[in-house]
Each structure stands twice: as structure tokens, then as C-alpha cells.
Write a structure and sequence with these properties.
about 475 residues, single chain, 6-stranded parallel β-sheet, 21 helices
Amino acid sequence: MTETRERNIMDVHPEVDEDVLSAEMGSGGFVLAVVTATKPDFYKQAPLVDAARDLGVPCFIIHTGQHHDDLLGHGLTEYGLADRVAVDLGIRGSLSEKTAQTMLAVEQVADRLEQWPDTTVLPVVHGDTHAAAIFPQAWLFATNQQVAHNEAGLRGMAPQYDEMRRSEGAVPLDPEASVETQWSGEWTIDRTEPFPEQYDTFVGSAAAKYHLAPVALNRTHLENEGYPVSVDGRERVPVVGNSVVDAIEMKRDRDGESVFDVYPALERRDNWIRVDIHRRANLLPARFEAIVTGVIGLVEAGYNVNFVEMTATRHALERQGYRDQLERLADRRENFLFTGLWRKHAHVYEFLESGRCLAELTDSGSMQEELNHIDGVCCLTARFNTDRPETVFDAGTNLLVPPVSGAFVQETVTHVLESESVRARLESGPNLYGENVGRDIVDFLSDRADEGAFEWSHEQHGFDIDSDHTVSYL
């Protein structure tokens, strides 16, 4: 490691808004510190911040700073979070750099909070972002305290692919068998992907005292891994739903600029397939080729397709020589729209609910949840496994489209969209993720303000031995 690189990693100076921090910490007692890092955090953590304000629970935001520019970081403004940020850790760089910087920055923040010794701060991390793994560890090491984990227990699962295989033919899997197997067959744990998100959510659980599970399946995963679901009759792993449903409702009353003002081509046609691909594993050459060539095949077959180019996607398109091809395709085909990342999350919801979107071909975890809540759009997930399998085998609002080849991607999407019964089930399955989730989470956590954010084994088992929870290392 060069001296310059080492200096960049070690040079961590969190920015603190003293007015916001003092206003919340000065109230004493119990304070929620909602942690945000990347785009999904903004809209899934915003309902907690709003609920805390409405319920009178002191609350501020610690933002890692990973998504900070006007495009990726716009959610802080869009969801009204910017003026609630008390600490910006200023995290940048590779996964290793972000890890090292977070450890150092959180220690500095913990030192800063010591000036309020009578106040208990409970951080709430979210989902499977890198911050969900590293922040809890950093906080535990710096304070000997644990955190709460919103959207805990996400574990990848996969269907039985042997039941989908064709005996012969160029396409190795059969689309019709794939649908039936996913909706009716057995599923098994497969935590290999997404990477690093599966690692992040698994590690984040270890330093959390409270695990806020979206559905009962997540609670079962955590219980199987040995986490106590309740202690002395008090719940530790409540099934609370997913706060994404609150985010959708927050954006239902829209005003100002419409998505059709930004992309007028979307209003000129119906039955769009919106494509949103960005997971690291899907950017591997063979898998990415399968997705891109499958999409091109759908365009050439006459389907209306909007390909959304995210940052990682752009790099893969350029690296594999597809970007120029897609630009030429957009020039000569009116049924193909090639756009950058949509800045406003409200625009995504507006389009999905507009009646002009037929399907979403995605590898996003959140999109699988959102399309469970939004009726009328088919969710097709370009992955071999999913950490939201309940949307497939419980709700039937989602199907995997494993990118084994361009032919299979095109054939599967075509089969689904041309099958009236499959489409009907995808478009209208039961909603899994509840309502008023942010309020329920804040209610649950504030009701446990007297428990403290850490306990030794003797305390968990009911032995009355005095402990100050302070660890000294000789």
C-alpha cells in the first residue's frame, strides 16, 4: 500500500451539524440514530425518521456519505432527510477503504456523543448495504453497544433447477417448467448472491440486538441461526413488514415535474418493459451477455423496452462493447428507449403505477418488494436466487429469469407476457409487507428504551449481577 493511499484511508473527519445533534441529544433519555448510506436507505429509512418526529421520539441521521452526489444522493433531499443529518461520515472509495474509514469515523462519532452520558443512542441500520455490515461492528467495538437492524434476515434462496431442465435443445431450461417449479416446488438456502449484500446482511445481524423482520420467513432464518426471537417474553425479532410500502405511499400525492416530462417517449407507447440491471454478479461477462442479448431480442421482436443505464451497468456495457450497439438500436428503433439512472424515486413509482409499464426486468431486491405492493406490473428478476423468495412462492408476484443465455431470457420473458394466467397472477398477488411500518418500528424500539443496547450472558439468563457494560483491555 502506498503512502498516499494509506493517508487517504486514515484521513477521516466526520462532519457534525452541531445544531441538529444538540437538539436531539439534549433531550436526554433515548435517541434513535437512523443510519443511511445508499439510495435504498433514503426511501426505506425516511418513514422511520418521519414516524419518530410524529411520535415525539428524538431522532437524527448518521449518513455515511457513500451516495453523496446530486444523482445517487438526491433521495436525501427528495425524502426530506437532508436537514435531519447530524453526522456525515464522508466515506468514499473501494469496499476495503469504506470498511476502514467507517471503523475510524464511527469511533470518532462515539467519542463525540460521550458528552451526553445520560443519553442512550440506538443506531438503526438498514437492509444489506455495506454500511449495514460495517457500521454495527464499528459501533459495537467503539461503544460496547448493539444496534437495531431494519429489514433483517434477508437470506438468499433458490428453486430446484433440475426440475426445470430440458432434455434437449439449445435453451437449457424450459420457461413453462421454470414458472411451475418456482411457484410450486421446493426452495433451498443459497446465500452466494447477491455479493457483497448477502455477506453484509448476515454480518450485520451479529451486532444487532433487535432484528426487524419484513416477513415471517426472515424471522425463521434468524431463529435458525440462533438469534433469540424473544427474551423474558419480550420480542427481539418482530415481524414488522417493510418500510418501502410507506415510501411508496409518501410519493403517491405527486406534484411538479412528471416522469413523462423527463422522458416523453414513455407516454407515446404502452406496455413498456423497464430493464434495471446492476448487481455485480450479473455484470460477469457471460451473464451480462445473456441479459443484454436477451433484451435486444425482445426489442427486435417488437416489445417496447426502456433500458436504464446505472453506473455499474455503463462500465459493463463499455467494457464488453455493447454500449454503442444499444445507442444505435435506440436511434433506429422507436420501441427502444436508452436512459440514464432516473434521478427521482417518485418518477419510478409514477411510471410503475401509470398503466404504461407492462413488466420490470430487474435484479434489484427492493423492486421485488415494490412490485408486490404495486399492482398491474409483472416483476421478472434476472437472478439465479433471490433474498425476497416470499414474493415468488408466497405471493406469486415475482419470477426468476436466470440469465443462462440470451435465448432463455428472451423466451422466458415472452412466455410470461404472452401467458394470460401467468401475467394475471404476477400482476395481482397478495401484498406481503404491511402498512404504517415506520410507525410500528419506532413504537417497538421506543418501547424498549429501558432495556439498554447491550446485555451480558448473565443478564440475558436472569442473573442479578451488577455490570456497567464497560470493557477494559489490558
